[in-house]
Structures are given as C-alpha cells and as structure tokens.
Specification:
The protein is an alpha/beta fold. The chain folds into four domains: 100 residues, no CATH class; 108 residues, no CATH class; 178 residues, P-loop containing nucleotide triphosphate hydrolases (Rossmann fold, 3-Layer(aba) Sandwich), CATH 3.40.50; 163 residues, Rossmann fold. The protein is built from 18 helices and 24 strands. α1 packs across α2, α4 packs across α5 and α7 runs parallel beside α9. It is elongated. The chain starts with a strand and ends in a 5-residue tail after the last helix.
Length: 588
C-alpha cells in the first residue's frame, strides 16, 4: 500500500513510507494508504484537471514571496479534488482524510549501515521484485522489511529504481508487468474491477492492486577493478567445437546496434557435442569487460549439471545458481545460472544470455517465459539459443534471416552418434498388463543393455515409474533400481546417485531426456510410439548414449508395437548429423 504526500511547495509524492527523510518541508499525507495503481490513477486525473484550470485562470500560480494565500488555495483545491476523485472511484465509504506531518529524519542509531546499503544495491541490480521477494530479500540481508522499503525508496529518489503496478490495463484487457501475460482472473474489489495474473503464479500471485519494485540503475562495471578473472578450462575443444566457439565469440563481440548483426543466434549442436563449453570463451570475454552473463535452461536438472562445470572453469568467481529450490534467491554475481521461471524476477540485467534447451518444456510454447528472457536482456544485449533439436519456428527465423545459425554436427570424441533401433513388442507395455503378460524379449534386451552400462528407461507417464521399478526389481533382484519424475521430492538426490553410478537401471519420465551425461548410459524407451514422445524427445533420449571419450558407443532401443513417423524422423535426423560430420571431416 502507498501513501500520497502533499508538500508545502505543492509537490505530490507516492511512497510506501509514511515518513521519508528527503522531504525538508511540512507535508500532509492522505490516509488511509492506497494500492499503487489507484494512487497513480488519482494523480493522473488531478493532473488533467490542473492542466485545464491553468488555461483559464492564474489560480495555479507557483508560490512566490508575498503569495502565501494563493499557495494555500492551491493546496486546498488539490486536497479537496483528490478526496472527490477518490470517493468517486472507491466502492466503499471510507474516512479519507489529510493529516499533517513534520519532515522525518532517521536518528543516528537508525541510519542504514553502508554495508547493508551496498549489499542491497548489489542484490537488487537488474531485478523486478514483488512484496514477497522483498521480504525474502530482507531475510537474506538480515535487515527488517521497513529498512528494505527505505532502501528501495532511496534508490528511487536517485533515479535508480521505480514502483510499478504488477498488472495494468492494456487496451480492452490487462497485462502483467512481471511476465507479460494477458490471461487474468477478474474480480471486484473495493477499488473497482481488479485482475490477478494466472500465468506467473508459481512466483507468487500478483494483481492490479500489487506493486513491483523495478531496478533501473546504471550498469555496475566497477567490480572488474576489484577482481582478476581466472578462466581455466579443464578441456580441449575439438575442431567442430573450436570453429563454433570462434563464431559465438565474434557474435558476442559484434556491434548489436548495427542492422547487419543479429540480436539472436541459434547454436544447433548434435546431442553430446559439448555445446555448453563452446560458450565459455565468449563468457570469459564478456565477464572480463564487466558485462553480466546469464546461463538459463527450462529445467533444474540442466542447471545443476551446468553449474559445477562453470564453477570449475571460473574458480575465483562467485556464481549465482537460482532454481525453485535454491537456498538463496538474491545472491549477487555477474555470472548467473537460472531456470527460466526465475528469470521473470530480472529486468534489463544481462548483456549476454545463453538459453539452453530452448525447445524444452516448460519454456517452449510459454509466452510468459519467452517474454521474461527478452525483459532480462539489456538494451543492445545478445541472446544465444542452444539446442540439439531446434523448433520449426526457430529454423523458420533462420531461413528468413531473423536469427543467425551456428552448427556443431559432431561430438568432441570424433565418433558417430549411435543410431537408435526400433524393436517390435507385441505385448502391452502398460505396467499392470505387462505384469500379467510379460515379454521375454524385453527382459532379454534389458539384460543385454545392462552389460554395457546403467540403463535409462524412459516411460510416457508418471504413474508408470514406480510400477516399472517394482517389475524390474522383481525380475532382476540383484540389480539396484530407482525411478523419478518431475514432482518427486527426492528427485535431486536420486539423480545425483545416478551420476555416481549407484543404479543399474533408472526409470524416469522425460525429465532426464536433456542436459545430463552419464558416461556409459544405455537407453530404452518403453512404448516409444506414445504421442508424448515426438521427434525431438526421441532424439534427445537417444542422445544420452555414447557421449564420452571413454564410452563413445552404446545402445538406444525404441520399444513399440509399430514404427511411428516420429521414430523415423528421429533416426533420419541423427543419420543426417553423422553424414554432415563425416563430409566435413569431423568424425573418423
């Protein structure tokens, strides 16, 4: 809630603080407080009335020596008009009134410590925060919420921030200023028709009665003087990776104000081609120049896979990792790794954004998350999209010259990507029916696969995971078996165990189809003809096989009653990558 303040010199202010230190004159406050959007509407309407009055009279003559009566009349008129407009707008009788107050100064023991101020500025730079975020920020900074509001207002008074309504009227509809969403739930409040955004509720619900704090301060480049950036890659790029890395570096270095330089570029890499490390040299170049860099991905499994690799290659740099389960949400760093939902809390914060798995759920097809990525980019910033399975829309933008394209058709170990195989299964693979009529062929194929390495068994439904874990444990009691899915509370611990080779077989939904490398993993897709397993999902699942130098081969089996167009296209896609790589001399 916000207060409208009217100073002796006829200046109006909107603030969440009833007492502010910069007002060095007598001030009156309108009580009770109001939602920001209502306060802004009141001031807009009064501004229009005042403009009309100025055309016909000298009533609004500014205060000069000897004109105190005119000033008093101005202020009285303002106060009366604000009350009239307010009573007309608000659908309930309230005891709205003006109350006098003296200018307010913090006592010496209450003054904000410089350390708190600097910490706050660093943590809020480039941020877009709701009330709940500011409250959590206060806890992380170990300062009370009242002090958080004071620091916000202090930044606003310097021109480094602003309060904005969370949801605003946009033509005949509404628009959320956090996610850009236009789908809302309307309801009637005492302030009139109100709208709550339904597209970003995962971050906490916001409505047209809520306010957001938006940092709009200048970019902070001073950190470069205080730290010597160390970039120590633990790997050597292959020929294909080196060519792509050079192209990405040139793109990031390019002048984005030039019309001939794309603002977005697509890195299309074969599964397991090492596309993430290809971006590290450009990251180092940007960080050395004080730029802020974001690595984003739709799923937290990808984030937790990339984070340690970045931290190892930039050992002296603090890296902020932001997911829905992160212990900290407002750590300050020039290198941030985050899920795409967390990006909705940023505003013009990053000079370079690397978005991995741009075709994956929940990012693909989500307008709010796509809008958030664009909002998080600074003016003149660059976006690099990374994927092994580009969408039709992104390839169309490439064809129309709206997006650049860089390809890596080969893996770093110079071996072809293993071709998946379709294996015909006449028996039903639904767990309950399979338990009554098991397929001996399926059991044999699984025994063959486990000889090569741990098996990732993909299923199309969450309800299948635990059932198939039980079936496998019953058939192979000597195996160590587990399973997981998106809402599994032990998901991260199980995936960590999988990386440590704790399991012989691991049953999962599509949560592990991307962004994870198990050195000698084998893949089996149960009911690969299910409608959820489209061409991109099948390519990604098959791409878990043969990813390392030590284990460049392996087995990927599509088990289904028939071969679908999706399976055929996935096989053709992988075959084409191998042919391009062979033609370019990138595989042996």
């Amino acid at each position: 809630m916000f207060y409208i303040l009217l100073t002796e010199s006829e200046k109006l202010h909107i603030t969440p603080l009833k007492e502010v230190s910069y007002l060095q004159e007598k001030t009156e406050v309108l009580l009770p407080s109001l939602p920001l959007s209502v306060a802004l509407c009141l001031l807009d309407e009064i501004s229009n009335k005042k403009t009309k009055a100025e055309r016909s009279t000298t009533f609004w003559t500014r205060w000069r020596k000897g004109e105190e009566k005119v000033l008093k009349r101005d202020r009285d008129w303002l106060k009366e008009e604000l009350l009239k407009v307010l009573q007309k707008r608000v659908n309930v009788s309230q005891a709205w009134h003006w109350e006098g107050m003296e200018s307010f100064q913090l006592n010496s023991e209450e003054k904000i410590r410089d350390k708190n101020r600097e910490d706050f500025q660093a943590r809020t730079a480039g941020r877009l925060l709701a009330k709940a975020d500011l409250q959590r920020l206060g806890k992380e900074c170990h300062i009370p919420y009242a002090e958080v509001l004071f620091l916000c207002h202090e930044q606003i008074s310097k021109g480094y921030g602003e309060w904005i309504p969370a949801v605003i009227k946009d033509g005949q509809g509404w628009r959320c200023q956090r996610c850009g969403g236009i789908r809302v739930e309307e309801w009637v409040s005492i302030y009139g028709l109100t709208a709550t955004c339904v597209e970003c509720t995962v971050l906490g619900a916001v409505s047209s009665l809520h306010a957001l704090y938006r940092s709009i301060g200048p970019p902070d480049r001073n950190w470069v003087k205080d730290i010597k950036l160390v970039f120590s890659p633990r790997w050597e790029l292959s020929k294909a990776q080196r060519l792509a890395s050079q192209d990405i570096l040139k793109y990031v270095q390019g002048d984005s104000t030039s019309e001939c330089v794309e603002r977005e570029i697509l890195l299309w890499a074969a599964c397991g081609a090492g596309k993430t490390e290809v971006c590290f040299p450009a990251t180092a170049w940007a960080l050395e120049r004080g730029k802020r860099v974001l690595f984003a991905a739709p799923r937290q499994d990808v984030i937790h896979d990339v984070a340690p690799r970045l931290q190892e290659d930039f050992p002296d740099l603090q890296v902020s990792v932001l997911t829905g389960i992160s212990p900290e949400h407002f750590a300050s760093s020039h290198l941030v790794i985050a899920t795409t939902h967390q990006i909705l809390r940023f505003y013009q914060a990053f000079d370079v954004i690397f978005l991995d798995e741009m075709d994956a759920f929940p990012y693909y097809g989500n307008n709010a998350l796509a809008w958030g990525i664009q909002q998080a980019l600074r003016l003149g910033g660059k976006i690099v999209y990374l994927t092994a399975t580009p969408t039709t829309e992104s390839l169309d933008k490439v064809r129309r010259g709206k997006m650049g394209l860089i390809r890596i058709p080969a893996r770093h170990h110079r071996r072809a990507i293993p071709m998946p195989e379709w294996r015909k299964v006449s028996e039903a693979l639904e767990p309950e029916r399979f338990s009554r009529h098991p397929s001996l062929k399926v059991w044999e194929w699984l025994k063959e696969s486990v000889q090569l390495g741990p098996i990732l068994i993909f299923v199309p439904k969450i309800s299948w995971v635990n059932s198939w874990v039980d079936l496998l444990q019953s058939e192979f009691p000597e195996w160590t078996i587990a399973g997981s899915y998106s809402s599994d509370p032990a998901r991260r611990e199980k995936v960590d165990g999988l990386r440590r080779r704790k399991y012989d077989a691991f049953v999962c939904t599509s949560i592990l189809e991307r962004g994870i490398t198990i050195p000698d993993a084998q893949v089996v897709v149960l009911q690969a003809d299910h409608e959820l397993f489209d061409v991109r999902a099948l390519v990604q699942m098959a791409g878990r096989v043969g990813r390392t130098q030590e284990n460049p081969t392996g087995s990927a089996l599509f088990l289904a009653a028939g071969k679908t167009p999706g399976m055929e296209k996935a096989m053709a896609w992988i075959r084409e990558q191998n042919e391009i790589a062979l033609t370019q001399g990138l595989i042996d």
